[in-house]
Specification:
2 copies of one chain form a homodimer.
Chain A (H helix, E strand, L loop, with lengths): L3 E8 L10 H16 L8 E5 L3 H4 L5 H8 L7 E5 L4 H15 L5 E7 L6 H9 L14 H16 L3 H15 L13 H6 L2 E3 L2 E2 L9 E9 H4 L7 E10 L14 H14 L8 E3 L5 H10 L8 H6 L16 H5 L6 H13 L13 E8 L4 E9 L2
Parallel strand pairs in A: 2-3, 2-4, 9-10
Antiparallel strand pairs in A: 1-7, 1-8, 4-7, 5-6, 8-11, 10-11
Helix pairs in contact in A: 4-14, 7-11
Chain lengths: 387, 387
């Protein structure tokens, strides 16, 4: 397998983009990535795009063809991949494998979701199709309810508190204030979170990530050729993907995600690093409890101590292991199919020293963690600053 | 890149399977492939699954997680890929790339669609999401109408006749009679086709492929290890994928598919063969005119002569280049996401000499051709019988 590096990244503004269409968004993100990489579109050999459900959100399947056409990239192959909210991470992984295999040289990994063109209740119903239709959605479960079950059990087993969960939201909203592309530039306090409307006890509105439109792109090339295009190539040193039962009742535990544990084990092994080597991470904080479980499952602390290290500030900017410097899904926004690529964009900018006011000084190794549904799929990537 | 071979294949019965669920179908096809390969499920490293729109057909996204769970394969990675009716072909290509890269050894390429659990008009509407929503579906176009435009232009430019199109249906229904898994075991005559209900002039009901439930699997390994598992490994010698404008009005021509021409060029180049070397092919006959255009675009005859060589019997069993010995989409059925894999199943069985009464004697090289929508995506694979 060839080594693979990122040479350029691009992001649209994240938010409720009522005046921007699906096709405009992907072209905008792609154009920024091409400009960042300093290449010509004609040099691109193939594209992978992560998207959860354009079929339900904008009534359009077969988006890969639509995207390469509107991006002016015909007739290159374009492949859509989907694993609910992990779709972007999967697109990055497939692009990585394609370059590593030698079948393509310059490959775009993209992610996109246009979620606000339908009514909010329709969006919630569409998102619920990422859960088991016969065992979960059938009885009325939606994602806040499913993650609330995990939160309750985590509180019961480890003494995690609602205040600790709120601190995840406070931190990520703070970080988002330094990210020009974030959906929210709005600080929140612990009290704001605790007093926000109850969605599914113990989760309040400000424990939940929002509904977001957005697109993200990263351009991958063989590492040996990366220096032709940039002085700061970002090596994709490890990739791991794993599956678990789609429905909660079939899982081994409610207080962590087996798919995360398996995926990060594979990624650490491939990259030849351990959790302690990682300087910063973008993790899948679709709900505040999800970040707490993630930092445990990824090995940044012992199981059950995710709430505690959040409270102690270890995951804040300037802390031991800064988590979600971009603002995360919570503050930056969560256009589901775009999120996995947007995480890689943040890590690439951080390792290149281009993260502005949210820069983690001297960062050499970063990690992304992208989850589908309630944990049926997880994908982890590890990035190293090129020497 | 490592060479890649198929060591086992499996297919469900195709048809209106009202007593079989989505999850049962994929397990059935997978179990048959595993049995055919003579491996244990525990040996499988990863899975790719082609599916057009479980989101619309059974209101379930994130099917990759559901499938590996129900197949007893947790926690291996599973990735859904989608390009409308070319989803299966894309799954085969991604599985090929994964094995070729060295990241995985034993990989399942699967395809599945459960189309009959909703009303027929809902199915037609769901299928129309593979066309451009803003330029085609918006004005009421569905696929019979879109292919009818291509048929009319082909008739105008090349003198192709409705009788020649009908002969595609007659041939493919005949072939399907020898395929135990086919949806139809029913001969039709040219008169039957010409007298069947008009759907979108000049296409009649029997010019159209049906709505079908079904699943298909193929198991891929590095070619150098294939002999451990089977005496008749089938080498995947070439793969090609290409894109074109999703909507007809942006295409260079109406009488052929640029995506097919580009995809087969890449596949022939990789395999080191030409059209004349191919012994048989499974092509994407979603409508009879589509088979006529495909055999031209793939190089089996000159542009415009597809109708003529069909009339002359060159594409029949025993003819110069047998096309759709399985019965094709027309006779075997067209569970959209499964079709690309089912095509590979047929070629693998033919090259292994296991195709029973539809066997093409001495077949050494086979080709599959899978199209998404009206030609926004095409993927071609070339297979060789292992020496």
């Amino acid at each position: 397998m060839r080594k693979v590096a990122i040479i350029g990244v691009g992001l649209t503004k994240f938010g409720e983009l009522w005046d921007v269409s699906f096709r405009q968004m992907i072209v905008e993100a792609g154009a920024r990535a091409i400009e960042d990489a300093g290449i010509d579109g004609k040099q691109i050999d193939a594209m992978y795009v992560g998207n959860m459900s354009a079929g339900q959100f904008i009534h359009q399947e077969h988006i890969a063809s639509l995207i390469v056409d509107h991006a002016g990239l015909l007739p290159i192959p374009c492949t859509r991949v989907e694993a609910a909210c992990a779709s972007g991470g999967l697109a990055l992984r497939q692009a990585f494998i394609a370059v590593a295999s030698g079948i393509h040289d310059i490959v775009v990994a993209a992610g996109i979701e246009k979620m606000t063109d339908i009514l909010a209740e329709q969006t919630t119903e569409a998102l619920a199709t990422a859960a088991d239709q016969e065992w979960e959605a059938f009885v009325g479960s939606t994602f806040p309810g499913i993650y609330a079950l995990m939160a309750r059990r985590h509180m019961h087993e480890y003494g995690t508190t609602e205040e600790q969960m709120a601190m995840v939201a406070v931190k990520n909203h703070h970080n988002a204030c330094f990210n020009p592309c974030a959906q929210y530039h709005m600080e929140v306090t612990i009290e704001d979170v605790l007093k926000s409307a109850l969605v599914a006890s113990p989760l309040k509105l400000l424990d939940c990530s929002p509904i977001t439109d957005g697109a993200a792109c990263a351009i991958l090339v063989p590492a040996e050729k990366a220096r032709r295009y940039t002085d700061t190539p970002i090596l994709i040193a490890g990739t791991g993907q794993a599956s678990d039962a789609i429905s909660l009742h079939d899982r081994q535990t409610l207080t962590g995600l087996r798919a995360t544990v398996e995926a990060v084990r594979a990624a650490y092994k491939m990259a030849g690093v351990e959790a302690r080597d990682v300087d910063l991470a973008e993790v899948h904080d679709c709900f505040t409890i999800a970040e707490i479980m993630a930092i445990e499952d990824l090995g940044f602390c012992k199981k059950g101590e995710g709430g505690k290290i959040t409270e102690q500030g270890e995951t804040a900017l300037g802390g031991r292991i800064p988590i979600n410097t971009s603002g995360g899904l919570k503050g930056k926004g969560h256009p589901v199919g775009a999120t996995g690529i947007a995480q890689a964009v943040e890590i690439a900018q951080q390792l290149s020293g281009e993260a502005g006011k949210r820069q983690v000084e001297g960062a050499q190794i970063g990690l992304t963690h992208n989850v589908g549904g309630s944990g049926g799929t997880a994908v982890v990537h590890i990035f190293k600053r090129g020497d």
